[in-house]
Amino acid sequence: MPPPALVMQTTYAELLERCAAASFHDQFPNDGSFTKKTVKGRIYWYFQTSSEQGRTQKYVGPETPELLAQIAHHKEARDDERERRALVSALVRSFRLPRPKPEIGNAIEALAKAGAFRLRAVLVGTIAYQTYPAMLGVSLPNPTMQTVDIDIAQFDDTSITVTDRTRSVLEILQETDETFRPVPSLHKGRVTRYVAPKSGLRVEFLTPNVGRETDLPKSLPTLQTDAQPLRFLKFLIDEPDPAVILHGPGILVLVPSPQRYAVHKLIISRRRQAGSIKRDKDILQAEALLDILSKKRPYELGEIWNEAFDTGPKWRKPLAEAMTKIDVTVRDITLKVANKTRSILPGIDLVFHNEPPSHNFTRDVVTFAGKSFGDVVQCEISHEALADYFGATAINPAINIEAFLKNRSAIEQLARTKYLSFPIEEPGRVLIKTMDIPKLRKLGQQS
Q1: d(CA 38, CA 348)
Q2: How far is Cα 84 from Cα 16, in angstroms, rounded to an integer?
Q3: Are strands 358-360 and 201-208 parallel, antiparallel or unpaired?
Q4: Residue among 157, 265, 142, 275 at smallest CA distance from 207
Q5: pLDDT at 88 over 90
Q6: What percent of the chain shows pLDDT beyond 70?
Q7: How do residues 352-409 score in pLDDT, each as one tens digit?
Q8: What is the pTM for the complete model shown?
Q9: Residues with Cβ within 8 Å of residue 77, at least 6 apart in sequence
């Protein structure tokens, strides 16, 4: 019998495929045809219909192999809502995957049917985080799943260049809860947030802040709303992934890739007020995803982490600071897949307090403890290194311990240098081998 995680991911993959086909069919009925346009060397597809009022076109999306397959099979699509509901129920019941509150699901479903996600809107925040367990085939901490907010982002240039439109956001939301109303902003006539007093639900629209810092809302014509510009959002919503919200028969949406979501949460956690619940939630979500992604998608995680780190000092500083706030094992594994050393972390050091050493018979090493950021770091030096450089004359635990004690200060300095400046081998530990010592001594002289 396949392992539960594989069954979960297989079931979710089938649901995602069915939801994509159903959404595509709903958005583009059979009484029309697909046509393409080339803009700046890239092909975009539109759905064209004719009526007595003339010809109209709806934006479909940029050409991809997946989109071409959907177009090819468009007329074969059938309504399989019952089967999709069964798949959603199986994922929630059998694997205890998170589903949104009904009022949240209803609002997202209405926006999806209106075409918001077809028009490249991206669901961000905790609702997006709820899609990752099924996507990755894992469980994630439940406390980080709770929210009454729906955050939706879109590039403002996409909204300007695409001529297609949804109905008014307020009109769409009021179909699910008549108490929805716009929240006035500091800028007269601009609305980026909507609330429903009856349920307490809040829906906010966001867009990347590129250029100088500003709080002036930008217009999103395709969604017929304004959006709050936010720094670092461009990084988050670049190349989003399709996902399914486990509500009703499943709702096809776009969400940030889990790699971008995790790294983005690290960065923005440092922009939150110290001690705030949101800052703690950012760190918890980032830590949970980094732990999974370092095992399941190490190459992709390393690539995205380095993309952020290499953007510049305004990105590097908060990212490095946030890494010191997560679990040490997760931190070290993430740095390892990113091919970074611990020395990039602000304030990091390895200190020793003269703890008694011991001999590990299985590994034939002398073990001694250090501390970094309050966490115990297990340090080791091999018998071979003790013999080659520190006078251990025989393979004997007592002789190894004696050689270590005579040269303790020098060995601890080697351990500190390797812990901080060498590529990470194992999280939370450092082993000094014979081959390391010449380079360690050279680095020690330079520091």
Answers
A1: 52
A2: 9
A3: unpaired
A4: 157
A5: yes
A6: 93
A7: 999 999 999 888 899 999 999 989 999 999 999 999 999 888 788 899 999 999 999 9
A8: 0.86
A9: 21, 22, 24, 25
Q: pLDDT band at residue 157, thresholds of 50, 70 and 90?
A: confident
Chain-centroid distance, C-alpha 50: 42
- Integer distance in angstroms from the first to the last C-alpha of the chain? 56
Nearest alpha carbon to residue 242 among 120, 153, 92: 120
Structure confidence at residue 145 (pLDDT): 63
Q: 225-230 and 201-208 as β-strands: parallel, antiparallel, unpaired?
A: parallel
Label residues 127-159 b or e (16+ Cβ within 10 Å = b): bbbbbbbbbbbbebeeebbebeebbbbbbbebb
Give the separation between CA 296 and CA 279, rounded to whole angstroms: 26
Residue 341, pLDDT above cutoff 90? yes
Q: How many angstroms separate the CA atoms of 337 and 341, rounded? A: 10
Q: 218 pairs with which residues across the strands?
A: 227
The radius of gyration computed from the CA coordinates of the chain, to the nearest angstrom, equals 27
Residue that the structure tokens 């923005």 belong to: 268
Q: Which of 199, 201, 210, 272 is nearest to 236 (CA)?
A: 210
Contact in structure between 377 and 369 (CB atoms under 8 Å): yes
With H, G, I as helix, E, B as strand and everything else as coil, classify residue 369.
strand
Mean confidence (pLDDT) of the chain: 89
* 58 within 8 A of 46, measured Cβ to Cβ: yes
Q: Is residue 173 predicted with pLDDT exceeding 90?
A: yes
362/216 Cα distance (integer angstroms): 64
- Sign of the Cα torsion 425, 431, 434, 436 reads positive
Cα 270 from chain centroid (whole Å): 16
Token digits of residue 180: 């929805």
Tell me the helix, strand and coil percentages in the chain, rounded to 5.
45, 20, 35
Q: CB of 357 within 8 A of CB of 405?
A: yes
Confidence band for 257, pLDDT divided at 50, 70 and 90: very high
**pLDDT (mean) for 4-28:** 84
Q: Reduce the DSSP state of residue 431 to 3 states and report it.
A: strand
**For residue 1, what pLDDT is reported?**
43
Please give the pLDDT value at position 30. 59
> Of 173, 154, 163, whose CA–CA distance to 229 is shortest?
154
- 369: which 2 tokens? 């403890």
Distance CA 82, CA 93 (A): 16
Structure tokens belonging to residue 90: 């199986």
Q: At 326, phi and psi to the nearest 5? A: -100, 170
